[in-house]
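Batch manifest, entry 17 of 40.
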Amino acid sequence: MIQNFKLPNADFKMGSKYSSQLPYILGIPLFFLVFSIFYTPLDIQDYFGQADFPFHITMLTCIITGVLGISRTMLHFVLKASGMGWAHYICWCLMEVLGMTFFMALYTALIKHEGQNYFQHLAYCLRYSYLELIFIYVPMSLVRAIRNKNELLEAKRLQEDGSLLRFHDEHQRLKLTIAPSSLLYVRSESNYLKIYYMEADKVREFTLRASMKSLDIPAFAKALVRCQRSYFVNPEHVTVLRKDRDGFMFAEMNIPNVPPVPVSKQYFDHLSELL
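Output type: structure tokens
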């Protein structure tokens, strides 16, 4: 059993990968385009002109996509660094739509020459964007809230399961929970740990900002043994220890396509006793 999650130091959570932002970057502009074409709220078709409407609505959709691309990229790094609460996320969404509106109004002011100034176009675009985009932001936020709740319940369940190994980052935030039998080995790189484990018959890698010292605790003693200065290995997955022609020692793993794990003389005897 493996679960990769963040226990919330804030209420709002989203997937740690950037791909979790793509439904917003692509889905919201698509909704805007379809909704504008089929429902034409606030007489937008007349506002831009019947003949030029398809071109202008396409340009507005591109503007929304660009703003969302920038905003959601920033949000991704903010969530990765510190997280945020739901109130902050709602404010972020409101400011996101406001940013779209500013650029939509700027475009409208540049292509329309009817004596109206920028702020008159801004007022129209403000009403239009918030009226329309609320229909997509609200359900997407509700779906995210439901997922957050389910993830929180699952996180609490995993916390109560004493048989699982828990990896915390340098701020003691729980990042990865994994069954000891699924763990292969851990490699240190500067201030990060690379954790290799099995999930659905595939080798996965998880990067954690933490030191090797964080693994020198009794909870990991059953599944991890230090085999080299920068490596811990799970003896359960080691088939044999071997030396190459140059005298370097390695632990061969029982999982196909997993490279041998280096073993130093200092830890060779102890690891061999466990096999």
